[in-house]
Each structure stands twice: as structure tokens, then as C-alpha cells.
Amino acid sequence: MKTLIELWKEGRTRFTNQLSKIKPEDLGKRIGDSPNSAGFLIRHIAEVELLFAKNVFGNMEVKVDAKTLKAQKDTGEWTDLESLLALVKEAGVQLEKAITSQENWDAVIKTQEFGEKTKASALGRITSHTAYHAGQLAIVVKYGN
User: Fold this and answer.
1) What pLDDT was estimated at residue 129?
2) How far apart are CA 98 and CA 87, in angstroms?
């Protein structure tokens, strides 16, 4: 179990290491006509982590309102850095709890979003999802307007 937590945490650093450098004025940045601002990306990553904690790994303590998924576009409302960072922190805590509680990583789960996968594959999916959007976030913050 410890190995899986370490793998997930290391993958997540691609995201979390950026957060201390982000300023409130960065949250509205976009690249050209890109549909997603930096604030949207931060919110989206946290929401999806919370959804995985709850719906994939069964942490029923999780409360999540997946606003970025509902809107399916950036509505411009994700501009409060403090609340975004709090959501990211909560997502990390809840996902770690969910990962730690797993016993059978070969068990198959089924979701509407990505069909049937083992829990181990689902862990890979959420880790790569976070890292993928973290790369986007880095580019938006560095080159966006």
C-alpha cells in the first residue's frame, strides 16, 4: 500500500509543486482562445480527484459538486485562489484516504466515464489525469494572458 501512495503522491507533485507560485492574477489567464483558464484547471483537477475518491474508490465521506464538469466550459467563476487551494488540499486528503482503504487492487470497477478497469488501472488514470492537466496549467500560467 505504501508504494502505491508514494507513486500517487509523486505523480501529484507535478500539480502541487506549482500551487505555491500561482498568484490570484494568474487564475484568469488563458492561452489564446483556449476554453480553460488556470483557475478552471485547478478546480477541475480537484473535482475529478474528489470524484475518484468517492465514485471509484468508495470514500463516501466525500462531498463534491463537480461544477467544471457540469458547466463543461470555463464560466470565469474560479478566481478565488484561497478557496481553490482549500479544495485541492481536501481532494488530496480524501483521495489518499480512499487509496489507503483499498484491499484488492485487481478488483474490477465499472464507471460510465471510462468503462471497466481494475482499481490499479483507475489509480493510474487519476494520477495521469492530474499530471496531464498540471502540464496545461504550467503552460497557461507561464504564457497565458
Assistant:
1) 97
2) 16
